[in-house]
């Protein structure tokens, strides 16, 4: 059995941030357990054609590791992965990485005030447990009757089969979310035919993506304060835009006509335009950015079909109208099971109560980081701990810093455990519940995975990130039961 002070589950953006924060605080007795064979999480797994970020590169990076060498306004997958690998190397957290270790269970022991972890590599014991698993790793696989009898290759976008050459083949793309919008133009270029199954039409805006000039990179590298100033500019630019999301949806409604005009200019065919026009409020669901998606749909070899496939044959998919589409390969760009990302791990808290049971009526947390009944356990990007209009990294850093402050405060008191009080979680959930109805994501505007069955009604943080970060700057230990 391996014993340590802190175990971090996951070596993606969240896990790396937590490790760096621990190192900065002088807490070096920690381990990062990663089920894969490398770091990167989402940006390691998603290697599909066209994969890139839709947040500006200089904002989608750590504040403690500004990168002056981004080559594009919006970084592609390969560049983000290289950045994460360089941060891990430069910050010297490699000593704590344990690859190929999948955590399958975690149990709280009240007598020793420790977590016992069951993994594919044996048992681990830790005083503190931090989940940095995020929500974009458990592929959502649609239930298409007969798909198991399809004789061609089938794969999810996050598990891209690079051995398959789609040149000259008939391809079905199921899904038009963030991944689907990036994949469609790439496949349309080479495929003989592309059938796009669209369950819900996305709002798609032009993407101001361009190379970062050498001159700009030199300025960011050598001019003191330039990188941090540019990052602040991008942050507050998005925060100001965020007012329309979390406080004044009417601001976004005013922009909708301009967005519709963009769509009309891109898609000339009235039948296709009607099919790809969203039937819900602008920005209620995730807005996507692409300069090539609509032009790809205009191609003669591309067909857009309304709705998800209802059945599959040996070499075909059947749409909701009963039309059979013959295809050679199926790509599932159907997203992830975001709200159930921890379901694969059996997490037992006080008195053996399962986290899955506690969340059976919908996931709830205290400030997105703690759950009553689960002492010394923290979540990064947990329910109600992320925003949908800006870079999540600013919230990850706030949460990772919060965890460090709590650990240090506990040590300073000479205590061994702390557990958030149910009434503290209830106050936070009430706050979220009060704020959510005024946002653009509320059920009044549309249905989306941002909504949940919980009392607060959402898995989002329905306010500005600066308010969230301010609330986490100093832990209120009155909201916790401290023991030992």
User: What gyration radius follows from the Cα positions, in whole Å?
Assistant: 23 Å
Total helical segments = 13
Question: Percentage of helical residues?
Answer: 25-40%
Average of per-residue pLDDT values:
95
Please give the largest β-sheet: 8 strands, mixed
For the secondary structure, the number of strands is 20
Report the β-strand fraction as a percent range.
15-25%
Class by alpha and beta content: alpha/beta
Overview of this protein structure:
With 484 residues, this protein is an alpha/beta fold. The chain has helices at 13-24, 42-45, 77-90, 178-190, 214-222, 226-246, 249-266, 270-275, 293-297, 355-358, 393-412, 422-435, 465-472, and strands at 2-9, 30-34, 97-99, 103-109, 114-119, 122-131, 154-156, 170-174, 193-198, 204-205, 288-289, 302-306, 311-312, 316-318, 324-326, 329-332, 346-348, 377-379, 417-420, 480-483. The strands form five sheets. Strands 1, 2, 3, 4, 5, 6, 17 and 18 form an eight-stranded mixed sheet that branches. Strands 7-16-8-9-12 form a five-stranded parallel sheet, with helices on one face. The protein has a three-stranded antiparallel sheet with strand order 13-14-15, with no helix packed on it. The radius of gyration is 23 Å and the shape is globular.
């Amino acid at each position: 059995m391996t014993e340590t002070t802190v175990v971090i589950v996951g070596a993606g953006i969240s896990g790396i941030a937590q490790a760096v924060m621990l190192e900065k605080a002088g807490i070096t007795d920690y381990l990062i357990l990663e089920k894969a064979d490398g770091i990167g999480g989402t940006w390691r797994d998603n290697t599909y054609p066209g994969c890139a970020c839709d947040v500006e590169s200089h904002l989608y990076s750590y504040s403690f590791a500004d990168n002056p060498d981004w080559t594009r306004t919006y970084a592609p997958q390969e560049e983000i992965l290289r950045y994460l690998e360089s941060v891990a190397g430069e910050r010297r957290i490699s000593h704590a990485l344990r690859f190929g270790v999948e955590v399958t269970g975690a149990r709280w022991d009240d007598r020793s005030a420790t977590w016992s972890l069951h993994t594919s590599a044996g048992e681990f014991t830790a005083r503190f447990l931090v989940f940095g698993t995020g929500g974009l790793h458990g592929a959502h696989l649609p239930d298409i009757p007969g798909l198991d009898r399809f004789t061609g290759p089938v794969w999810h976008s996050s598990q891209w089969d690079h051995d398959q050459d789609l040149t000259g083949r008939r391809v079905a793309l199921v899904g038009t979310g963030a991944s689907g919008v990036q994949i469609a133009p790439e496949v349309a270029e080479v495929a003989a035919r592309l059938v796009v199954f669209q369950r819900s039409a996305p709002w798609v805006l032009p993407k101001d993506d361009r190379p970062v000039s050498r001159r700009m990179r030199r300025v960011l590298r050598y001019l003191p304060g330039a990188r941090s100033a540019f990052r602040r500019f991008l942050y507050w630019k998005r925060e100001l835009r965020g007012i329309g999301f979390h406080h004044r949806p009417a601001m976004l409604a005013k922009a909708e006509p301009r967005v519709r005009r963009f769509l009309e200019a891109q898609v000339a065919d009235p039948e296709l335009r009607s099919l790809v026009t969203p039937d819900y409020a602008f920005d209620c669901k995730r807005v996507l950015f692409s300069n090539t998606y609509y032009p790809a749909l205009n191609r003669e070899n591309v067909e857009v079909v309304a709705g998800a496939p209802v059945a599959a044959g040996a070499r075909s998919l059947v749409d909701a109208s009963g039309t059979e589409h013959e295809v050679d390969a199926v790509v599932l760009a159907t997203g992830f099971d975001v709200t159930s990302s921890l379901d694969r791990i059996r997490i037992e808290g006080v008195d053996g109560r399962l986290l899955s049971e506690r969340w059976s009526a919908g996931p709830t947390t205290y400030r997105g980081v703690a759950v009553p009944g689960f002492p010394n356990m923290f979540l990064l990007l947990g329910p109600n701990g992320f925003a949908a209009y800006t870079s999540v990294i600013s919230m990850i850093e706030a949460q990772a810093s919060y965890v460090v402050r709590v650990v240090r405060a506990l040590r300073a008191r000479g205590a061994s455990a702390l557990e958030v009080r149910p009434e503290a979680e209830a106050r936070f959930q009430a706050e979220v519940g009060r704020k959510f109805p005024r946002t653009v994501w509320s059920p009044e505007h549309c249905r989306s995975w941002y909504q949940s069955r919980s009392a607060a009604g959402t898995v989002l943080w329905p306010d500005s990130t600066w308010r969230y970060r301010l609330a986490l700057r100093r832990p209120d230990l009155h909201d916790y039961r401290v023991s030992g």
